[in-house]
Design goal:
alpha/beta, 10-stranded mixed β-sheet, 14 helices, 31 strands, about 25% strand, globular
Length: about 575
């Protein structure tokens, strides 16, 4: 017997196994060839043995025939199960649709839905699906879109924003999309900034049947406490702020509770697929694609290469077809490179002045055997000055362990859009490197498997607070993976110029900008000096000056710093000049 609860309005239920059929006691199946699909289809009927108190609903048989290649026939007076979008499962052998338009129609995507979109920057994005949805006249609107980043203007997600189909964006980083930033500050778009690792973990939790997770990322900041701008008025004033998130203490440390993120439809991009929906990813283009796939109620995958079932070795499959509902060929496959970076063998990086001083000093933080995450800009540049004979493993949080140098055309290396770093720059992978999806990457970070994190900052406080992602009303970038990184057990080193343009102080008693992390910084390296930060209060807290640049005095540092600090005993070591 089928419970009436499975047939109530708004639910969706599909019997998929012989065990389900026998439990109903009345579902009869027969098979007939289908000229459209070239495979067997089933003629299924539901007989009067179904619980008589269930109210009959109707189904659009034409739409469902397109979806699965099944035809439904009524036995006299028998109710028909309504098929809706939440938990259906396939019995058809192939999930391949003829094009993106067909797949989108079959997904049931409607206005107001939440969609999760794989990709990082423009790497590994489902171009075909995004282009088709953007061009869909009178199609779904007021969408909530969840993705790691907001992409760039005029391409991928950028098109979706420009055609006015998106109501709210959930992302960790939006700094490369100027039109997006304009839309946010003029009230055309709501933006919910969420740490990168938290987005991936929320998606993975949804796919694992877990209602929520606890993470240290953002604890003690405005992100957890509420108050970040969510929506602006046309004049730029904030009309809606984020609400506080629940928190809880575990072993003396504060954690933020985050609800699972369950999208109505997920768009994912794979390198290779078979007709049963098994997926293979390539390089850093994996990013959050597998996480989006496991979370979605309905999942559409596009792949560059599609083969028949059985042609993929089971051991090379990264994501089981159980998660994929519809499959299309990636007809739009530009695979744009956001930041082309190349190098030449033997070429020495040209750095000078204060910036060069910071880079060279940051490189001294490396120790043999370390696993290290380097942020965008100066931290990444430090990898060019790893001492000879020292071996460290560099991680890119978008899914690469064993980050190599920029590709060198003189060595026959070409820039590969499937291998980029966290700054979206083209890179190579060293011998012994590995790739993985976003949630796995942040598991390494949160789990304490990284030894060192070096990243940039806008402000630091004397107690180790860091602000690095947002200037209210002026600059919208996002925290990216920084909140996850600084809340992890690794040593955290911040690199930045000592003062801002115009001489404004960046090292303060308390940060004035929204925090990336509270009490998280171990060391600050600037163009003037190096500070150690007693973030745990083991020496009564505060900063200690441990190195100073040539030609700079302690009084010079005090004049450029808006908090008191101690000075190391004895002669102060000098920073190396570039």
């Amino acid at each position: 017997m089928v419970s009436s609860s499975l047939l109530k309005s708004g639910s969706r239920y599909f019997l998929r196994r012989s065990a389900d059929i026998s439990r109903c006691g009345g579902l009869i199946g027969s098979s007939a060839p289908s000229p459209q699909h070239g495979r067997g289809i089933a003629s299924l009927s539901l007989c009067n043995a179904i619980n008589s108190d269930c109210k009959a609903d109707t189904i659009d048989t034409n739409a469902y025939n397109l979806l699965h290649g099944y035809q439904y026939h009524h036995i006299r007076d028998s109710p028909v199960i309504v098929i809706r979008r939440s938990i259906h499962h396939h019995i058809s052998a192939s999930k391949l649709c003829k094009d993106a338009s067909t797949a989108l129609q079959l997904s049931g995507l409607k206005s107001g839905d939440t969609i999760a979109v794989g990709g990082f920057g423009v790497g590994g994005i489902p171009e075909t699906l995004l282009n088709t949805l953007s061009a869909w006249e009178n199609g779904p609107s007021d969408l909530i879109v969840a993705s790691l980043t907001a992409g760039v203007d005029g391409f991928g997600l950028g098109k979706l924003f420009e055609c006015g189909k998106v109501k709210r964006m959930i992302a960790s980083y939006v700094g490369e999309n100027k039109n997006f930033e304009r839309m946010f500050f003029t009230g055309e778009l709501e933006v919910e900034l969420v740490p990168q690792g938290t987005i991936a973990a929320r998606l993975r939790a949804a796919g694992s049947g877990m209602p929520a997770i606890f993470t240290p990322a953002g604890a003690g900041t405005m992100y957890a406490n509420g108050g970040l701008p969510l929506k602006h008025a046309p004049d730029g004033s904030v009309t809606v702020h984020t609400q506080p998130r629940p928190t809880q203490m575990f072993d003396g440390k504060e954690y933020v509770m985050e609800y699972a993120l369950r999208p109505d439809v997920s768009f994912v991009k794979a390198y290779k697929a078979d007709t049963r929906g098994n997926l293979v990813f390539r390089g850093t283009s994996s990013n959050a694609n597998p996480d989006c796939a496991v979370a979605g109620k309905v999942v559409i995958a596009e792949a560059e290469i599609i083969v028949e079932a059985g042609e993929l070795d089971p051991d090379e499959i990264h994501l089981s077809g159980v998660y994929v509902d519809h499959l299309i060929h990636a007809a739009d496959n530009e695979k744009r490179i956001e930041r082309l970076r190349e190098t030449t063998a033997g070429k020495v990086m040209d750095i000078s002045g204060g910036r060069g001083r910071i880079v060279k000093r940051a490189a001294k933080e490396f120790c043999n055997g370390m696993y290290v995450n380097l942020g965008i800009g100066i931290p990444t540049m430090a990898s060019s000055f790893i001492p000879e004979g020292m071996h460290i493993e560099l991680q890119a949080e978008n899914g690469l362990m064993g980050l190599g140098p920029y590709p060198d055309p003189s060595l026959g290396q070409t820039a590969d859009p499937d291998y980029i770093n966290a700054g979206k720059e083209t890179v190579t992978a060293v011998a012994g490197a590995s790739t993985f999806h976003s949630s796995e990457s942040f598991n390494m970070i949160r789990g304490g498997h990284m030894d060192l994190t070096i990243l940039g900052g806008m402000q630091c406080s004397s107690s180790g607070d860091l602000a690095s992602f947002f200037i209210p009303g002026k600059l919208l970038k996002g925290m990216g993976g920084a909140m996850d990184l600084v809340s992890s057990p690794s040593t955290v080193v911040v690199t930045m110029e000592h003062t801002a343009k115009g001489g404004a102080h960046k090292i303060l008693e308390e940060c004035t900008l929204p925090l990336t992390g509270k009490g998280v910084v171990d060391r600050i390296i600037t163009d003037m000096c190096v500070f150690d930060c007693d973030k745990r209060g083991l020496k009564n807290g505060g900063l200690t000056l441990i190195e100073i640049a040539q030609g700079i005095t302690v009084d010079d540092v005090r004049a450029a710093t808006s908090c008191s600090f101690d000075v190391v005993e004895g002669e102060i070591p000098l920073m190396e000049e570039p």
